[in-house]
Write a structure and sequence with these properties.
The protein has eleven helices and eight strands. The protein is an alpha/beta fold and about 250 residues long. Bound molecules: zinc ion (ZN). The site of zinc ion has 9 residues, from helix 8.
């Protein structure tokens, strides 16, 4: 494994002094490759956190362009970038935050046909996409590839985020009814700006804990009610009939 340079040791000093993290944790982040699906509100919380923390390789997947109505919750984009491609702008943002990060944009929309090809080779996937069809395609691919998934969502005043590793999977949680649902929740229902940033930051925390072995958080969904200002953690049971991860139960 490559040694951390003097500049990196200085940059990550507040990580390296942390008990249960240390140089080993920082090296694990530097060696890690994370795919981020969606450079929207969740991505705007997660991408700065992951880049600053020193994830070595980030792949940012989004086929959208910056719309003026995004700016209320997506502070990684500036007013003068309206109309620009989100994936490329977000990757440039990440590398400007931290020159030790290699960020690669993929201007693609993930679907069941291309998800495995786009996500293969990563150590973890962080999904902050805005619709169930994409989330299910990403989850199915992660189960098939054996890649841990942090799935995060926020709408109106409600946020949810959890780590999925094999079984139970995201499909156990939502079922099969939403594969054709590709509507943009935020445009129809609204969302309070800091909520997706909070959920995206929490998603980055789960990702870093998983990549450094700080905790095994799989199988629990964390819910933030931004109206009552309360967090709840609920265990997610595996669906015995899940068409995606059910095979994992039968094979082992
Ligand atoms: Zn499942």
């Amino acid at each position: 494994m490559a040694e951390l340079t003097d500049q990196e040791l200085e940059r990550y000093a507040r990580h390296i002094v942390l008990p249960r993290f240390g140089g080993a944790g920082q090296n694990a982040l530097k060696a890690a490759s994370v795919a981020i699906v969606g450079a929207g509100g969740i991505g705007s919380g997660a991408i700065p956190a992951l880049a600053a923390a020193g994830i070595g390789q980030l792949t940012i997947i989004d086929d959208d362009i910056v719309d003026r109505s995004n700016l209320q919750r997506q502070p990684i984009f500036r007013d003068d970038q309206v109309g620009g491609g989100k994936a490329g702008l977000a990757a440039a943002f990440a590398m400007a935050v931290n020159p030790y990060v290699e960020a690669s944009p993929r201007e693609r929309r993930i679907d069941p046909a291309n998800a495995a090809e786009l996500l293969a080779g990563h150590d973890l996937v962080l999904d902050g996409s805005d619709n169930f069809a994409t989330r299910l395609a990403v989850s199915d691919a992660c189960v098939g590839l054996g890649i841990p998934l942090v799935s995060a969502a926020a709408v109106q005043l409600q946020g949810q985020v959890g780590l999925f590793r094999g079984r139970p999977c995201f499909r156990c949680f939502v079922g099969d009814a939403f594969d054709s649902d590709d509507c943009d929740n935020c445009s129809e229902l609204g969302v309070l700006g800091p909520l997706p940033l909070t959920i995206g930051g929490f998603a980055a925390l789960l990702a870093i804990r998983a990549l450094t072995g700080m905790g095994d958080d799989a199988g629990t969904l964390h819910l933030l009610d931004a109206d009552r200002l309360s967090w709840r953690a609920i265990p997610l049971p595996a669906d015995p009939g899940c068409r995606t991860c059910g095979a994992l139960a039968r094979s082992g």
